[in-house]
Amino acid sequence: MDDNPAFDVSPSDNKATYVLSNVVEVVERILTFVPTKSLLRIASVCRLWSNCARRVLRTQQQLTWVSVCGPSTTEVNALCNSLTDEVEKVFLLPKVVLTMMDHEAVKVPDLSSPLFLKAKRSRHSLVEELSQVFPKNCDIMGIAAPGIVLTPSGSRSSPPKEYQEGEAGFAIMFPSMEGVHIRPFHFCKKSLSQSALKEAGLIDNPELRVVLLFVYEAYKPGGAQFLGQILTPLAKSKALIAGGIVESVFPASLCCSRGAYGVVGLALSGPKVQGASVLLDQEVSNPKAAEDTIRRLKAAKIPERNTLGFMFACVGRGHNYYNNQNNVEADAFHKVFPGVPLFGLFGNGEIGCDRIVKDDYTLCDSDADCLQHEYTTVMTLVHLG
């Protein structure tokens, strides 16, 4: 017989082929080590692999994130640049993405500026870049704020950082999770109504647990009244409300005219969602007081696994508020919750309040004023099962 190795098939190869074609348990175990984007490609190999890949995807319910700081070395936004590479490595299928960047990265000047068209193309390009990174049916919510709080990519236990100056940004990727329903919403003056609030799950929703909301152009005439229309029913709910007043959002709603006020956010519902928050008010002005206030979140007894921290701070706080000490509040959070990643922003106003108890509870007894603050920080825990 010819000894040509091209025609030799070893017994071990035959066994491996048989196992990978027939033994579901082995194939499924191997696929748990494959990043999601590659897993979707593998699913087209055969029916067995497709079924195994589908089951593996259902188990991948750990959220993840990508964060960056510092200017981009290319014409592409630094966060988008990083996402292009990092999304190839994640072990989840993103259904909702919350991204925040410093406002300079997405700033569009006034219409009268000769740089307007260039900046407009730049922001349009940013939206396109983000859309190309994630699946077509993925909802992307972008926030631009004066400062960013983020945990570096890679480890939940990495110390979070406050960036009040310079370029920084992050993208949190939420997969489909059992017992968790995340619904994005976007309202402007033209689209806000009781029926729209109900459709977004913000009212008449007994399973509503957490609302993260971000208001833009809030100081335009009518903006305060508009915000009150949204916060008043939420203030009487049992859900956790947290967020802030930001510079802008992207992509912009088609119903909004340029410069119009509006609000975007996420409504988190379901039996596996938990939330708690504390308010660091103006009297909290030293590291010990900050840590003592954040430590009160421990009373909520929220599991740290699959939990995110959110920090919504006034631009007047940060190092200026703590006698030029940097990262005071983020460090205090990390000391109390070393295994929980922290994200957030420095904005022009804060939304939230002390909300620690879990049972039958109403946030406010009166109106939405108890949810709106200045020179404060809202520190929040959100658990997703």
Question: What do the pLDDT scores average to?
Answer: 84
SSE string: HHHHEHEHEEEEEHEHEEEEHEHEEEE
Adjacency order of strands in the biggest sheet = 5-4-14-13-17-12
| Total DSSP helices | 10
User: Mind describing the biggest β-sheet?
Assistant: 6 strands, mixed
- Low-pLDDT runs: 108-124
What structural class do helix, strand and pairing data support?
Answer: alpha+beta
How much helix, percentage-wise, in residues?
A: 25-40%
Strand content: 25-35%
Q: What is the overall shape?
A: globular
Our measurement of the CA-to-CA distance between the termini, rounded to an integer number of angstroms, reads 62 Å
Q: What is the radius of gyration computed over CA atoms, rounded to a whole number of angstroms?
A: 23 Å
Total E-strand runs = 17
Q: Topology of this structure?
A:
Layout: H1 11-22, H2 24-31, H3 36-42, H4 47-59, E1 64-69, H5 78-86, E2 94-102, H6 116-133, E3 139-145, E4 147-150, E5 161-163, E6 168-175, E7 181-188, H7 194-199, E8 208-216, H8 223-235, E9 240-246, E10 248-250, E11 262-269, E12 273-280, H9 287-295, E13 307-314, H10 328-336, E14 342-347, E15 350-351, E16 372-373, E17 377-384
Parallel strand pairs: 2-3, 8-9, 13-14
Antiparallel strand pairs: 1-6, 2-6, 3-10, 4-5, 4-14, 7-11, 8-11, 9-15, 12-17, 13-17, 15-16
Helix pairs in contact: 2-4, 3-4, 9-10
Features:
six-stranded mixed β-sheet; alpha+beta; about 375 residues; globular; single chain
